[in-house]
Write a sequence for this structure.
């Protein structure tokens, strides 16, 4: 059915304050004062003036002459003037049943009229977002209104002048992605495919190269390569920048985009171009995709009665595995010291990381806190075993008493990130351990996923991690107490070729 643009037919103006009910059940109010729109939004705000009403009165003067749209999905009456049209859009948006005029209608309008019609869309959606967040009456500043006008104008220009037709939903989706990406590298808009991938995980017949990444300086950046993975075997290191994947530039790309391009069927190849910090020339690498499995906690007893315990990642079993390995080390005799290796460990579960730190700390010592704008984002955790055991991940086995008194050294490097940074910071700030190695990655934020619909969501940074001394981990990392050479190969960790372990053993043997 063809869409038509009709000129409104003038009808006698009702007296001020009189109500009429349209065929769609929307209350219309004609008032001499543009700010009086309480009644028209009664259905959404319960008689309280809502933010969309305020936007309507501000934007009213920018509307073109009366226009009515004959749209089967959302028919507007032909006798409505500009202000009533805007009120319908504002009220419909707040009642969550707003649909924009079809593209056919927009294409028939002049650019000026199209931009102004787009402004109605932006204003209405703005009102919906504020209403759904439970905010009360809120005025729109002139600066904000100017920015909304720009958004509407850009949308209108794209719909009329871009070289090929573009679906309005694609344009608005890009707008939402840009809105989130502008905040930080971790916040993101998740479309249907990305949201489903987050919930269900990747398909079983899709594998990657075994690398943990974030976005830094506008590029996917390696946090750590999983030991034994294709990424580890070709020598990817923490803080390597990924410039290209299969010839596609990754500049200003999201992590989700990089992950999609790295995944594929087992046995297929993927080509990377990377740049290592401190080097001028890029490197080209070719990797074969294959299933990757995280290593479990391992330990060994070194000469001079010093124990070595490596934590490659943190999951629900890691804390109990660490206790089991510690008992094995103790079984051969008392320990002079313990080296806790957190190098190239990207972290993992927060509560399991807290439990790991608490095992080595005095009761009720501070472990970590979070800081955000909402009350639920401001929390603090201590080494209280009773509280920790309330976690669904906590195991009920005993904590060896010797763990709280054994002298500790923690090995760290640029691949030490997130949850294991929390462990290292808690042990350092409470005076329980010395850090040896190089500066950690500095990854310390919490992202909250908030669904928008059944097939979309946003991932939003809602809190920072703070160490017991009050420092933010994000972007800062932890400086070691003693510098040591980094691992050249992950398989050297804990061996005689491990310069960091040699430095730790030397520290234990040095006269106090």
């Amino acid at each position: 059915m063809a869409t038509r643009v009709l000129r409104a037919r003038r009808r006698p103006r009702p007296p001020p304050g009189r109500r009429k009910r349209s065929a769609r059940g929307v209350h219309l109010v004609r008032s001499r004062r543009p700010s009086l729109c309480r009644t028209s939004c009664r259905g959404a705000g319960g008689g309280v003036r809502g933010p969309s009403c305020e936007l309507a009165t501000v934007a009213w003067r920018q509307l073109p002459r009366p226009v009515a749209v004959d749209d089967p999905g959302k028919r507007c009456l032909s006798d409505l003037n500009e202000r009533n049209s805007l009120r319908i859009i504002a009220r419909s948006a707040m009642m969550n049943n707003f649909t924009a005029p079809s593209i056919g209608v927009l294409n028939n309008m002049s650019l000026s009229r199209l931009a102004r019609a787009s402004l109605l869309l932006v204003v209405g959606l703005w009102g919906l977002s504020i209403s759904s967040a439970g905010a009360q009456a809120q005025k729109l500043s002139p600066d904000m209104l100017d920015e909304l006008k720009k958004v509407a104008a850009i949308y209108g220009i794209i719909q009329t002048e871009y070289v090929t037709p573009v679906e309005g939903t694609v344009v608005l989706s890009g707008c939402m992605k840009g809105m989130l990406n502008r905040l930080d590298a971790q916040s993101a808009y998740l479309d249907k495919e990305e949201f489903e991938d987050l919930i269900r995980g990747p398909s079983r017949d899709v594998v990657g190269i075994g690398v943990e990444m974030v976005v830094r300086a506008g590029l996917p950046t390696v946090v750590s390569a999983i030991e034994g993975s294709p990424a580890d075997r070709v020598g990817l290191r923490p803080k390597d920048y990924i410039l290209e994947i299969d010839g596609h530039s990754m500049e200003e790309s999201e992590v989700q985009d990089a992950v999609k391009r790295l995944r594929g069927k087992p046995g297929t190849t993927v080509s990377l171009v990377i740049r290592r910090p401190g080097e001028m020339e890029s490197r080209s690498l070719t990797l074969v995709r294959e299933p990757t499995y995280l290593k479990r906690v391992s330990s060994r007893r070194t000469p001079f009665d010093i124990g070595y315990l490596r934590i490659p990642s943190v999951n629900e079993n890691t804390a109990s595995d660490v206790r089991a390995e510690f008992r094995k080390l103790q079984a051969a005799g008392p320990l002079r010291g313990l080296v806790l290796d957190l190098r190239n460990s990207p972290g993992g579960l927060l509560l399991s990381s807290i439990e790991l730190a608490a095992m080595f700390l005095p009761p009720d010592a501070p472990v970590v806190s979070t800081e955000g704008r909402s009350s639920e984002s401001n929390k603090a955790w201590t080494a209280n075993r009773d509280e920790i055991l309330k976690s669904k991940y906590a195991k009920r086995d005993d904590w060896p008493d010797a763990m709280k008194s054994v002298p500790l050294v923690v090995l760290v490097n640029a691949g030490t990130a997130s949850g294991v940074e929390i462990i290292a910071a808690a042990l350092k700030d409470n005076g329980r351990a010395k850090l040896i190695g190089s500066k950690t990655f500095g990854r310390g934020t919490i992202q909250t996923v908030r669904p928008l619909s059944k097939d979309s969501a946003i991932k939003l940074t809602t809190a920072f991690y703070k160490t017991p001394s009050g420092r933010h981990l994000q972007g800062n990392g932890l400086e070691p107490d003693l510098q040591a050479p980094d691992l050249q190969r992950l398989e050297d960790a804990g061996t005689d070729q491990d310069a960091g372990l040699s430095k730790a053993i030397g520290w234990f043997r040095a006269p106090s």
User: Anything to note?
Assistant: Confidence is low (pLDDT under 50) at residues 1-9, 17-112, 128-137. Residues 289 and 471 are 39 Å apart (CA to CA). The chain has three domains: 4-166, 202-288, 298-509. Residues 298-509 form a domain with the 2-enoyl-CoA Hydratase; Chain A, domain 1 fold (CATH 3.90.226.10).
